[in-house]
Amino acid sequence: MKEVLAYLEKHKETHLEELKKFLHIPSVSTDSSHKNDVKNAAEFVADYMKEAGFDKVEVQQTEGHPLVYAEWMEAGPDAPTVLFYGHYDVQPPDPLDLWESDPFQAEIRNGRMYARGASDDKGQVFMHLVVLKAFMKTNGSLPLNVKVCIEGEEEIGSANLYEILHQQKEKFAADFAVISDSGMVANDQPTILYGLKGFTGLEFTLKGPDNDLHSGLYGGAVKNPAMAMAQLLATMKDEQEVVQVAHFYDKVEPLSEEERTLIKDAPGEDYPASTGITQTVSEAGYTAKEHTMARPTLEINGLYSGYQGEGTKTIIPSTSTAKLTCRLVPGQDPTEIQDLLVKHLEEHVPEGVTLSIKREPLSAKAYKVDPDHVLIEKAAESFAETFDKEAVYVRMGGSIPVVEWIDAIYQIPVVLLGFGTPDDRLHSPNESFPVAHFEKGMNTLVHYWQKVKDYQQ
Amino acid sequence: MKEVLAYLEKHKETHLEELKKFLHIPSVSTDSSHKNDVKNAAEFVADYMKEAGFDKVEVQQTEGHPLVYAEWMEAGPDAPTVLFYGHYDVQPPDPLDLWESDPFQAEIRNGRMYARGASDDKGQVFMHLVVLKAFMKTNGSLPLNVKVCIEGEEEIGSANLYEILHQQKEKFAADFAVISDSGMVANDQPTILYGLKGFTGLEFTLKGPDNDLHSGLYGGAVKNPAMAMAQLLATMKDEQEVVQVAHFYDKVEPLSEEERTLIKDAPGEDYPASTGITQTVSEAGYTAKEHTMARPTLEINGLYSGYQGEGTKTIIPSTSTAKLTCRLVPGQDPTEIQDLLVKHLEEHVPEGVTLSIKREPLSAKAYKVDPDHVLIEKAAESFAETFDKEAVYVRMGGSIPVVEWIDAIYQIPVVLLGFGTPDDRLHSPNESFPVAHFEKGMNTLVHYWQKVKDYQQ
């Protein structure tokens, strides 16, 4: 292990330069104009695995973006097999004018690597690739059997991965999985993430007149679709942030006193300081920590109607549209919740406008693993040895659908080793990732692979 | 008069071609990138007046777009002076993809001239210019003294005209004014427009976090500005279309029984048929006709927050913005109403977001003239002689601020001779103007100038 750590130290500048190359590829999966860039990012990962000495490296074509697969299975039949999953696609960078540097020209400022994807997920994926290569270049082997699965559609719902995992179960079968696509609760604070929220969503449009109308001539005869949208959205949540969609909370696993204590002990984020809001706002009866970690949410992600340009335009808009997503907790079924949303909209749409709904096809249940599991304990130990701190245990508000699918298909533990921080600005302008976490985190992984090489299911 | 009518008939093709040239100039006043086009449109008008033989033709520079002025005062001291006002600027054409032909390549289809500005207001302005030229070319004179004032900022609130009218009262002083910037209640149905609504507006933004946030990590701690906007807007009108802003209706001139009868007798528009809405929706206690003509309105013209692109983006938006305008009726003061809107927003803004407001600087009171005034009667006669139909008397929901200013400064009657139709699609894609109205309407004007040449205040 010492040699592997020394190798990492020796080549650390090179690894940062290689990461920059990876970040330079604008692999925006949701935007069809970037299809070739996404493919190039897949090739980058595949080439790296080949160069590391992995077997069966393939850029697997799908109906969407490619999936990169590689394996090294020579640790022997007694050694466990880990499935390492990550994604090489990234969120759109917009709004571009708010970035201080080009989102796809990675640069290091104040100890952070700035680029879209630096934290979510390329920085963290690349940590794993470098560590695996370090073992291979140093020892010519890995401590355990490793299957690598890096996809290009996580930001758009992983539709093809879902199909592939179900159709090719044997190929991806393992004893446990490891994913690094989440974050620590604070900079330099190792965090065991033992739960994720689920996800469901939809987009809907209200239509009034066939065209935008002159607001003077038609105001008073026509239901304004923008006002109708406001009235409709206002029925979905009350002023105490309680979702008003009937039966939304029916199957929610209640928050136990034990968990409330665990959550209370976990470090919180000073949201006004970190985000610029004037005050935190959360569901009546729950703290912001409890709500972000363990209560479901309903959020409008986009809302638009009518004229948005310079100056005034006195129209009644023809349509209005809202994009809405919910984060779910254990107990809630995504399809059921989506049905409840649809029913609520249909029952509350104001008179004078017509409703059309586009359901988000992909979704995920929430996920929870036992914090006392040996693989979780080993992770906490590895963190303690490299970050010199005890880990905290948290559930997080984000969703990683593949975690739920792996759980459903294989019933294996999924260990979420996140190296991000609250300042990383995921999904926002000026995303970044601390170089210190990139470096210390790779050491954590080296320790971890060593510790789990004798794991038996 | 016969010779003038004959001249118009003889040169009708030429006049349509000249109108097309006028329409080809994209004089979009609200868009600073069209500043030169606006100037060219002003020059077009000035050149036409010069060619018609008018005196003192000037393109008057302002702090914004130019004002075109011309006069012919040789009808003698006993003859009345009319101030003809119009505007050569137009609304933005967007959304462009909904136009069937280029908005600035005028073409005639099915008896209609299609172009942005064909009805509002270039088609109608040009009718007047052609008629004045026809008198000058035929008789070498006009039946009365005429002052022509064609501005380039009507679509953006006429800020500089307001200043000029107040600073140069003598220059524009007249015995009455004529404006053709409105429409008939139906195709080929002469309409006496004896009232207009006033206008006020504002734009406001709610800000939550400094940046868009990851909805999984921050949902549950942060008030979503899009939901806050929906909740705030929903407080402004109830489901019966009654504005909920305190004191909004306090000074509204009540609708008398006589007026309700007048309105009932005026032809209505089949709104579902003409606009595509499923049903009309109007203020509780009032019909759609009553509400559009004689009750105040509050309409959202634009609304936007967060992600609007292709696919999903799981963010809590940083901000949300709404553009809102009100149409006012006699009794309401625009500045007072704007103050009430501001007060309402400040009192109802949800917790966790901050409010910033941008007041629309220009506004107008409502306007009403006595339907029995002799100048109104003469207009009805002129219509009857050229359209072969009795005129109907209506109040309209649109606003023309300059009407209110002329009323306030000069206390002279303003005669609204509108030649537009409900199918013209003002402010919308595929705006058009019937060629038949262009031609018959010019005849109406010829009759009218003859009839009013002996008018004494």
TrEMBL record, chains A, B:
Pfam family, any one: Peptidase_M20
UniProt keyword list: Dipeptidase, Hydrolase, Metal-binding, Protease
Signal peptide stretch: none
Domain Peptidase M20 dimerisation residues, every copy: 194-352
EC number, UniProt record: 3.4.13.-
Gene Ontology terms for molecular function: dipeptidase activity
InterPro entries (UniProt xref): Cyt/Met_Dipeptidase (IPR051458), Peptidase_M20 (IPR002933), Peptidase_M20_dimer (IPR011650)
Top class in the EC scheme: hydrolase
PANTHER family, per database record: BETA-ALA-HIS DIPEPTIDASE (PTHR43270), SUCCINYL-DIAMINOPIMELATE DESUCCINYLASE (PTHR43270:SF12)
The name this protein goes by in its record: Dipeptidase
